[in-house]
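name: query_chain
kind: protein
chains: 1
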Amino acid sequence: MDNSISALSVIWRVAHVAEFLVTAVLASFLSILSGLNRAVAILSVVERVEWLLRSPIWCRPLARNNFHST
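structure:
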């Protein structure tokens, strides 16, 4: 059971990271399409990645079996 909880935690983290990366890429693509400067779009991506790296998701340890057997 402990391995499945850890695997689900890893999958959740990967999905969370993928969500932010896709959002950053789409935001930059839409910024370029809407006529904003490419530098602004690149800074937007950098800002989102920086926020992701400082996100509390990385500060928490992976989930372990938190249930105590009684």
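note: The chain has one domain: 2-58.
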